[in-house]
Amino acid sequence: MRSTKMTDRMEMIVPLILYFVLIMGIAVWGNMASSKKSDTAGFIEEYFIGSRSMGGLVLAMAIITTYTSASSFVGGPGVAYKLGLGWILLSMIQVPTAFLTLGVLGKRFAVIARRTKAVTIADFLRARYRSDAVVILASVALLIFFMASMLAQFIGGARLFESITGMSYQAGLFIFGLTVIIYTTVGGFRAVVLTDMIQGLMMLVASMAILLAVITAGGGAANIMDTLKTIDPGLLTPQGPANSIPKPFILSFWVLVGFGILGLPQTTQKCLGYKDSKSMHNAMIIGTFVVGFTMLSMHLVGAMGRAVVPGIEIGDLAVPTITLKLLSPFWAGIFIAGPLAAIMSTVDSMLIMCSASIVKDLYFHYVAKNDAAALPPSKIKRMSIAVTGVIGAIVFFAAMKPPSLLVWINLFAFGGLEAVFLCPTLFGLYWQRANALGAILSMIAGCAAFFWFNITKQSVFGTTPIVPTLVIAAAVFVIGSYMGKKESPEVLKIFEM
Question: How far apart are CA 341 and CA 335, in angstroms?
Fold first, then answer.
């Protein structure tokens, strides 16, 4: 019996080992590509945005895999296990992610980025508002909320290892954290987006495999629905059992993961790196399909899984438990690569942006005074490795004692980022009157309001904190912009289309 368990574990681990070897190979290739850049400016552009060379498929997968995360594969389906089909409907709000991001921000953002030679979101804000305060506030907020989001991803990755391979939570945390930190620091942006493409394909395969397994085990979709109705009729309603998904919450969720994604730096950053308009248009179509299929499949697994594998008390363990019960060891290993891919692709993008924020936006600009001689490519790489290692270590130790329902940690981080970045980004792109004072006041007010609503648990018309937060941030931005000076004609000319 013991021998059988060991054999099963080895069968699960083999696909993971092969997957890790593959992405490490890509990281080495990415390192070789960046090393060819001998000048500082060229190296920075290559290391942090891949020399603006992303095609349609790569761009789509980069945006989607950055956006999807542990909450998409573990946390969200775990909630669907508890609340049923209503949560599936709610999750589908996320389908237009790529279409909305690239449609609203894509071309305009990329054109302006090329005019200003922007490599990071902070570069864009600096060019638009000509304010050190805006850049510093943006960099600090990015680091704080990215670390919160990465905490959720580390926990999700470790729990998957623990649940499926039988390893300890700490061992899973170590393996996951070390892998993603190494390939991100070694390969830079090019390695990140190429692994994102592979990770996106792994997500599709994994979600399809586990969904088919659930439907087969449940005797077909119709039979599963009958079983869910027997358990609790509320599982089949849009509002969920005992009206657990009220309409104000639906509005809040749409704002947070629908409209609000325009304020997420990790997705807008990808708009800096695509090759041409054709690539952007292809990415909009491919990305919409991928995120739609993945979200629907995984949340169906969670909701329908309750009829097939009942009695799971902790939502975050629903998908790992269902996987172990329904899939063979080898396919369980393939499956775990899917959510791990989603998690890793979110973490790697955040790590590279944290590194860029500290090394490029703060150190290079304020300490080195944009002097290329003071920061050659070799020093950038050493600093990036050090920064990534420190941030990774902080998140690692914070994840040693994980809270439950990591989906809410991730949503908190999303909300904080949107509170700070949404208004400066959108107003800066589309409103000529936008200025530094409006941006500064909006960032401070948005962040303060978001924390206040979360701490006090105050609700406005039954909505979650993100709705009143964004209303306050937008109102303060408009007021501040009219109070402050108009931007110079030179700045406005750069941002004309």
Answer: 10
Count of domains forming the chain: 1
The confidence score (pLDDT) of residue 293 equals: 86
Exposure string for 61-85, b = 16+ CB within 10 A, e = fewer: bbbbbbbbbbbbbbbbbbbbbbbbb
Asked whether the predicted pLDDT for residue 182 surpasses 80, the reply is no
Would you say residue 23 lies in a domain? yes
> Is residue 86 a part of any domain in this protein?
yes
**Assigned domain for 458 exists:** no
Which amino acid, residue 359?
V
In this prediction the pTM is 0.79
* Cα 18 from Cα 425, distance rounded (Å): 40
- pLDDT-based confidence at 449, cuts 50/70/90? very high
Decide if 183 contacts 26 (C-beta within 8 A): yes
Given this model, what pLDDT does residue 38 score?
Answer: 47
- Supply the CATH number for residue 53's domain: 1.20.1730.10
Is 411 part of a structural domain of the chain? Answer: no
